[in-house]
Amino acid sequence: MTQTQPIPLHSTNRTRAVFLVGFMGAGKTSVGILLGQRLGWRFVDLDRQIEARVGKTVANIFRELGETAFRQMETEALQKLLHALRDGDPTVVALGGGAFAQPSNRELLESSAARVIYLDAPIDELRRRLGEDDQSRPLFLDAERFRMLYEERQPLYRLAPHRVQTAGKSVIEVAREIESLLGES
Ligand code: S3P
């Protein structure tokens, strides 16, 4: 397969989209950017779209408006994006770590023709990837909350139709694995 050749996806409507979900540090953005480049697809990071729309960083939205307000913005942004993707360009989307944990967002994705892929990794590796002090992630600041959220969300992420284990793999290895997975489905 060449770098820019789109892979065949057999959708019931015209949506050609891949959504990457998973915990903070799973590699959704870095894998998503590379996968988009390899497929010749657009890449969208939903958190960056929210930030551009609201004019605040995610950290500031949490600080100033609270998590509930952020979750509402997230669902609204997802709704708009899925609508735009119906007749839009093929797109790889990185969702924020909490997005797929929300039932309303899972329903939106289920009722679309988008492919949803869970990027899995053990918690120690996620912590290592994120480093010691990531001020941009409000839910990473407290180690105990990070661990509890990870455990709480595992069964929810596993509701995704596809799962790719990323432990010990490079970004390009994960991107290649997703490509072959998409080619087979
Ligand atoms: C969140 C993860 C973040 C961001 C926000 C909330 C979460 O995205 O959406 O801080 O609830 O896990 P990343 O997974 O890209 O860090």
Task: State the gist of this model.
This protein has 185 residues and is an alpha/beta fold.
CATH homologous superfamily caption: P-loop containing nucleotide triphosphate hydrolases
* Average predicted confidence as pLDDT: 91
Q: Tally of extended strands?
A: 5
Biggest sheet record:
5 strands, parallel
Share of residues in helices: 40-55%
Q: Taking strands numbered 1, 2, ... along the chain, how are they ordered across the largest sheet? A: 2-3-1-4-5
**Structural class by helix and strand composition:** alpha/beta
> Span from first to last CA?
16 Å
Q: Any idea of the CATH class? A: Alpha Beta
- Tell me the radius of gyration: 16 Å
Instruction: Give the amount of beta strand, in percent.
Output: 5-15%
Tell me the count of domains. 1
Listed once per kind, the bound small molecules are: shikimate-3-phosphate
Element-by-element helix/strand order: EHEHHHEHEHHEH
What does it look like?
It is a single chain. The protein has a single domain, classed as Rossmann fold (3-Layer(aba) Sandwich). It contains eight helices and five strands; from the N terminus they run E-H-E-H-H-H-E-H-E-H-H-E-H. It has helices at 28-39, 46-54, 58-65, 67-85, 103-110, 123-130, 143-157, 171-184, and strands at residues 17-21, 42-45, 91-94, 115-120, 162-165. The longest helix has 19 residues, at 67-85. The two termini are 16 Å apart. Residues 24, 28, 47, 58, 96-98, 137-139 line the site of shikimate-3-phosphate. The site of shikimate-3-phosphate has 10 residues, from loops.
